[in-house]
Amino acid sequence: MRPIVNTTRQEEKGAKVVLPFYLIAFLFLLTSCFGGKTATSSGGELTGASGKAFSEPAPYGMVLVKRGHLRMGIENTDSLWGKQTPVRDISVEGFWMDDTEITNSEYRQFVNYVRDSIIRERLADPNYGGDESYKIEEDKNGDPVKPHLNWKKSLPRKPNEDELRAIESVYVTNPVTGEKMLDASQMNYRYEIYDYTEAALRRNRLNPSERNLNTDVAVNPNEQVWISKDTAYIDDEGKIVRQTINRQLTGPWDFLNTYIINIYPDTTCWVNDFPNADNETYMRSYFSNSAYNDYPVVGVTWEQANAFCAWRTEFLLKGLGPAARFVQRYRLPTEAEWEYAARGKDQNEFPWDNEDVASGKGCFYANFKPDNGNYTKDGNLITSKVGIYSSNSNGLYDMAGNVAEWTSTIYTEAGVDAMNDINPQLKYNAAAEDPYRLKKKSVRGGSWKDPESYIRSAWRSSEYQNQPRSYIGFRCVRSLANTTSDKAKPVKASAKKARK
User: Fold this and answer.
1) Start-to-end Cα distance in the chain
2) Lowest CB count within 10 Å: 51, 114, 257, 343, which one?
């Protein structure tokens, strides 16, 4: 404000009015900048600081499983095998879960993304014409940024010679049959995961004085702390090299793990899982034929399922803006989350309300093998479309049968006995050089080829993390961004429900 000199009484009165107005505006500006609420009371009362309210978007195609309690495991000895399974009372936080298993069409979207990424990289490569508009290395002001692909620029509809070479480079032709197909060996997806849990452990603090709160213990500033991290790269021959590095703690980058995974499903699982069976039709058509679009994807390893979760997270976060830092990443469910969700709100033995596997009219509640060798008794031979059987009380389809499902939990005989009773989990990222037995993961739900005993919600089975099967698929979960989200009404995937 400019100084007021030789003013009249009216001008002085006006000045006195203007001054408080600017002070109020300035205070309001300060409050909005720092995100706190203005204390309206006087005398120094504690009023707290507030910020902008966050409302978690309900993820498409997922349902909300509210927090609750579960007696996990099979109470009575299994009558078929006499096998004891660990039993324990546990509690889990609420989470979002895919209402169906991931389908062929959904997983094919992932494959197409990787394919188109490779094409864009090559279109920007000088060896294929060098169209720099396919890759962004500077912002709008001309300042350098981390190089990334420009997805706003479409692939050429009428490619020139160089562009055609780039597009054709991701395909191969069978020299015997002349059949042109996508080169599965090139479908490699690179992603990074920051391990917040390891970074938060007190023993991994960068400042030695923070590693032990016992003030009677002398701090050793030269104490060596060793960490283990995963990394991967492509060698000169184009092969994926995966390593687990053990080294001294140096900084926050030690908790960033890098993975490169070939993500194309193993379509040969149909003939490798069933020797002396004529399953060539499934091998050639199940994943690529649009007739199987709404069937669960199979032939996907645990490692590939994790890569899908990472890609889905990347896909989600692009459109969320500042809210992205609150939204949790997609992941595989823990073994406890899976069983809790499968049992439904009344914690039944099966995902439905009784102990029978078929209604009084003979209609089966799931796709499994009702009799020895009679796969078709339930109306299916192999997998079925997702969601054609009724959902459980949580709104989840096919939690029994169809395909068994990967979980994030390592498989041990001790099971839940070795876990905490709140949000239990056993996690181990096996290194390439680890014994193979350490690479077993828990698989739940049973499949189209399993008998009644195997499709119970509490039944535990396992598979090695790099082993694709024609009867194992997966679905994703996402932790709630805040616990008040369990009151939210989830958005239904209308397109999915329409086909059911």
Assistant:
1) 69
2) 51
CA angle 346, 351, 352 (to 5 degrees): 80
- Residue 109's SS3 state is helix
Strand, helix or coil at 233? strand
Please, what is the Cα angle at 393 between 390 and 395, to 5 degrees? Answer: 65
* Residue where the block lists tokens 């389908």: 103
Q: What is the pLDDT of residues 418-455, one digit of tens each?
A: 888 898 898 888 888 899 999 999 999 999 999 998 99
d(CA 409, CA 335): 6
Question: For the chain, what percentages of helix, strand and coil (3-state, to nearest 5) are there?
Answer: 30, 20, 50
Gyration radius (Cα) of the chain, Å? 28
Give pTM, 2 decimals: 0.86
Beta carbons of 397 and 339 less than 8 angstroms apart: no
Q: For residues 391 and 98, what is the distance between their CA atoms, to the nearest angstrom?
A: 12
Longest dimension (CA), the chain: 107
Task: Please say if the pLDDT value at position 48 is more than 90.
Answer: no
Task: Quote the CA–CA distance of 466 and 392 in Å, as a whole number.
Answer: 31
Secondary structure (DSSP) of 393-456: TTS---SSBSSEEEEEEEP-TTGGGGS-SBS--------TTS-GGGGEEEEES--TTS-GGGGS
- Structural tokens at position 350: 């099966």
Q: Is the pLDDT of residue 249 over 90?
A: yes
Which one, of 310, 269, 312, lies nearest residue 106 by Cα?
312
Query: Concatenated DSSP letters for 143-184?
Result: -EEEEEE-TTSPPPSS--HHHHHHHHTTEEE-TTT--EEE-G
